Amino acid sequence: MPVQIVVMGVSATGKSSVAERVASELGWDLVEGDDLHPRANVSKMEAGDPLTDDDRWPWLTRVGEAMATAEDAGRSSVVTCSALKRAYRDRLREHVADVRFLHLHAPVDVLEDRMSRRTRHFMPVSLLASQVATLEPLADDEAGQVVDVTPPLDDVVAAAVAAVRAMPRPH
């Protein structure tokens, strides 16, 4: 049975870097959720305006559809998506009932430092506070694991791969 993993968390947790390496290690498809944002969302974030739920719903639908396409084709995938709220994760589960989550986490000061040093990304440091305020950690009834992204990337990837391998398989 294919497995669909969402690498989630606020900006600067390394979702793209971790997901790319986890997908490579496991031999699974990679879907970059940021690539599925409508242009209007990207423009809004570039301008420093936080997205609203109304902005996010069409994007979450696209992310869910990408996972469903992989699952229908019998392929496992690793998908990047902030998935900050339970309602957003519920939207993803409308497309793939047994999606699993890797919640990447680090202290805010670590994330601010990372954001201030990165280039060519549409998310400004000014939006981190709104993401942190929006974040609803995984509930006990949500399949997933939290991975600390403070250590070096190789250690984070090893922990993420171990977490995925330890997750119960779908039926």
TrEMBL record:
GO terms for biological process: D-gluconate metabolic process. SUPFAM superfamilies: P-loop containing nucleoside triphosphate hydrolases. Its EC number is 2.7.1.12. The keyword Zinc-finger does not apply. Belongs to the gluconokinase GntK/GntV family. This is Gluconokinase. It comes from Nocardioides marinisabuli. It catalyses: D-gluconate + ATP = 6-phospho-D-gluconate + ADP + H(+). GO terms for molecular function: ATP binding; gluconokinase activity. Pathway: Carbohydrate acid metabolism. InterPro entries: P-loop_NTPase, Therm_gnt_kin. Keywords: ATP-binding, Gluconate utilization, Kinase, Nucleotide-binding, Transferase. GO terms for cellular component: cytoplasm. CDD domains: GntK. It comes from the Bacteria.
